[in-house]
């Protein structure tokens, strides 16, 4: 398995992997593949990596810029992380997260936020930070990883593509 940047022509495979990954997830509204498409169209996928094996693309991770009401810059949202169901639990997602965070490090990003399982993302250093939250996301599922600079504060704003806007 290799991890590589998304390239032209990967779009359909990424959409398929993302749809498959979230198909049986109770909390999903089944639009994650559309989020990726909207972020890509808006030029807001700062980091977009795929996991590929001899069968083709089996995973994807995206990072897009976020805003903070405190005005801090250089922060990104990890979302979505998708792995085909038959490859989940085999380390594909972990490789994508680690490699994606390494790219953010090289870009000198301040850090990343994620809404998801705190036990899973805690393995990569994500922690709940008091005073950093996002509307509609329970605090215990919203975690932060600081890469460079200080600890952020404020309410996180996501790209409009997460809400279905075509921005």
UniProtKB/TrEMBL annotation:
Q: Which InterPro entries match?
A: Acyl_CoA_acyltransferase (IPR016181), GNAT_dom (IPR000182)
* A Pfam family: Acetyltransf_7
PROSITE patterns reported for this sequence: GNAT
Single GO term (MF)? acyltransferase activity, transferring groups other than amino-acyl groups
Sequence ranges assigned to domain N-acetyltransferase in this UniProt record? 1-148
What superkingdom heads the lineage? Answer: Bacteria
Q: What is this protein called?
A: Acetyltransferase
Q: What is the protein's species of origin?
A: Agrobacterium deltaense NCPPB 1641
């Amino acid at each position: 398995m290799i991890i590589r940047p998304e390239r032209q022509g990967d779009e359909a495979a990424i959409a398929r992997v993302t749809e498959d990954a979230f198909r049986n997830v109770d909390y999903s509204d089944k639009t994650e593949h559309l989020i990726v498409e909207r972020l890509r169209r808006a030029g807001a996928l700062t980091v977009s990596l795929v996991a590929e094996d001899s069968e083709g693309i089996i995973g994807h991770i995206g990072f897009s810029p976020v805003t903070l009401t405190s005005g801090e810059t250089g922060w990104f949202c990890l979302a979505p992380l998708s792995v085909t169901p038959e490859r989940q639990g085999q380390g594909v997602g972990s490789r994508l997260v680690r490699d994606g965070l390494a790219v953010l490090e090289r870009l000198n990003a301040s850090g990343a936020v994620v809404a998801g399982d705190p036990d899973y993302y805690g393995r990569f250093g994500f922690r709940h930070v008091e005073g950093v939250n996002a509307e509609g996301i329970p605090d215990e599922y919203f975690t932060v990883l600081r890469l460079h600079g200080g600890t952020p504060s404020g309410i996180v704003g996501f790209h409009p593509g997460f809400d279905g806007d075509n921005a």
